[in-house]
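Hey, resending since the last one bounced:
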Amino acid sequence: MVIRAIAAEAASFSVSDIQRKCPGVSLDMIRRVLKMLREKGQVECLGRGQKAKWRKTKNWELGNTH
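The structure tokens again:
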């Protein structure tokens, strides 16, 4: 569910954007998925803290996330 929500984002997004799209998913799970995708080089974090934005990288389409 979290990966589908990220895939649906056209540009940068925040954790709260993903929370709104995945109401039954815990914040910890969203963070775990983002961490995994970051380690694979498929997303990158732009900033720090609550207002941090994320975006998909060029590796997103190459990855096996869908």
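The chain has one domain: 2-62.

Sorry for the duplicate.
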